[in-house]
Amino acid sequence: MKKKTDIIAVARAARVSPSTVSRSFNHPDLVKASTRKKIDAAVRQLGYIRNRAAQTIHGIRSGTIGLIVPTVDQAIFAELIQSFSEAVENLGFTILLASHGFDLDREYALTRKMLEHRVDGVALIGIEHAQDTLELLAQQDMPTLLLWSFSPDAAFPCVGADNYQAGYLIGAHVAALGHKRVAAIFPPLGGNDRASLRFAGVTDALEAVGCTIPEAWRLVAPYSVATAKSAVEALIAEGDLPTAIVCGNDVLAWGALHALMRGGIAVPGQMTVTGIGDFNGSKEFEPSLTTVRIPARTIGAKAAEAIVRLTTSEEEVDTGALIPTEIMVRGTSGPPGKA
Amino acid sequence: MKKKTDIIAVARAARVSPSTVSRSFNHPDLVKASTRKKIDAAVRQLGYIRNRAAQTIHGIRSGTIGLIVPTVDQAIFAELIQSFSEAVENLGFTILLASHGFDLDREYALTRKMLEHRVDGVALIGIEHAQDTLELLAQQDMPTLLLWSFSPDAAFPCVGADNYQAGYLIGAHVAALGHKRVAAIFPPLGGNDRASLRFAGVTDALEAVGCTIPEAWRLVAPYSVATAKSAVEALIAEGDLPTAIVCGNDVLAWGALHALMRGGIAVPGQMTVTGIGDFNGSKEFEPSLTTVRIPARTIGAKAAEAIVRLTTSEEEVDTGALIPTEIMVRGTSGPPGKA
DNA sequence: GGGAGAAATGAAAACATTTGCAATATTATT
DNA sequence: AATAATATTGCAAATGTTTTCATTTCTCCC
């Protein structure tokens, strides 16, 4: 009963050879219209579904793109993945998704898995990766794209924003407002080039006006509202408050804002708060969050285009793209209040 | 130069037959330790990577699970996808991800694509799907799991929460507080069983105390902070305010809270606001959001387990699971203020 | 040292396709 | 109506594995 319905069954039902059936799928113009009709009928009647695995072993593209991310559930990656996958799907590919939770060893293992699946291309988040991983991809000459961050001298073409610049923009804004007592909340910087670069940008911009973030005010919190909120609550409890808090991304800023609201500290009157990213909802926050716009959707779409171009075209095309960031000055930043 | 490095090349390099190489991967105990060592050396030296496509056409599992979601970038799905993918990866599978943007025709097309890729199982979000899609999956007897919502009489096993109950819980809470003038913000209900059921639960709970949500207070907003905020701003502009706003999920509630804050309306003094979902950050909101906890991570993990069980075991196991919801009464709800 | 039995290996078929080439059918041309 | 050109189709080989079965190689024991 469980008649495996392969291309041969279809051929039999349509009274043609398997070759013709195959051709009717892949080069329809090579088969007579009437035969094609017979074949289509047989396909429908048998409920035949093509087997991409069998195609793939002929060197035909598998139609999949491997996407390896640190995690899916951070607002910012979610948006990126969404636009990337949308665009990739529209180009006829499907995404093979894996997350490594910021563990570079796991990233390597996942990369191997992607290669086993014979994906047509691989996209990784960020510039920094284990040497192993990069070598593996190069050695298998797998079309590879680095996503989210941009650097002119990365190991592979990249599509993304300049995180250093993003940090610098916000740092300069805070500096220009005249703040001298500045705190920062960032996630752990190790193995996270985005965060490191942003932080470097912020500190450099502040240094430029002679302002340094004291050790005690360098708060560390993984990207979550909860941790940021409690970090800032602790800061408030300390008593010695800065006049501005620069946050590594918008989620941290939200947490900070909640903490300040709860502590009855006026924003921006007594405290300036800034984010980075301009996530959905940041503009609608009350007060509206000053941040740096990193256009995730644009990056995702451009990246999809780029990776597909890399997999399809023979010659080495330069597909990198630097997506510009933009500072969004809104309601949470202002001149330092009276100390 | 581009020597295709297949299992035969490895065999040659290790001076054994391809069969032995294959065995050394799949049944290592059947090959002598010394030979295995030779093979491993050859593998490393040639940089060989197994070709799952070739395995798959032998009826061997492809090691992939198709996950079809409406969209990735809604807070709630992101969390779900994250936990699902994590768990699935730990069980040795990889996720083939696709999103249809609430378009059931696209969902059908994507399902076909998954079948072409010979995934070992398919997980869909929600109970409601095009008849086509369900038939296709049944006809190909593809292990299928419905994710996120639970219903005892769904077409396939499902792992998820009872959205009606979630709605009912929150509706009952609002009713119990004594609210009679209640508004609701929900996304468009069509093709979204989660939202419809929640709304039904809310209205039923309110009906039970003789309270009806008037037509004018049934606000519609897709799941985004921005739309919810402007919907509530419009409501405020109208002038005739309810004493409670029940939101279809937490994101909508955030938007509503921002609008109220901006309008200077005290929560919970003048207005009660509730969400559904208990997303990351809702507890930390100021004031802390009253909502219904739907444990996305639990659902994702349980679902991963279930789908893997479905794909691996022969007999029909009943793998459905109803994940309980729980009301989280926090700071945004209280008795109705003076009108 | 000769077998018996077990352990390890290899040969070849099978899996579901695609494709180059040859064979056949259909048209067009005179 | 015959020939040439072209459009369709089928045959068979190829793709990279796994697996069954047969064969070879080891061990162990008397």
What report would you give on this structure?
Two copies of one chain form a homodimer. Chain A is α/β, with parallel strands linked by helices and 339 residues long. The first copy, chain A, folds into three domains: 7-50, Orthogonal Bundle (434 Repressor (Amino-terminal Domain)); 64-161 and 296-324, Response regulator (Rossmann fold), CATH 3.40.50.2300; 163-293, Rossmann fold. Helix content of chain A is 44%, strand content 15%. Chain A has twelve helices and twelve strands. Chain A has a six-stranded parallel beta sheet with strand order 2-1-3-4-5-11, with helices on both faces. The model of chain A has no long low-confidence stretch (mean pLDDT 94). Chains A and B meet through α4, α5, β2, α6 and α10 of A and α4, α5, β2, α6 and α10 of B. The structure holds a DNA duplex (30 and 30 nucleotides).
Question: Which properties best describe this structure?
Answer:
elongated, 12 strands, 339 residues, alpha/beta, four-stranded parallel sheet, DNA-binding, Rossmann fold, 434 Repressor (Amino-terminal Domain), homodimer
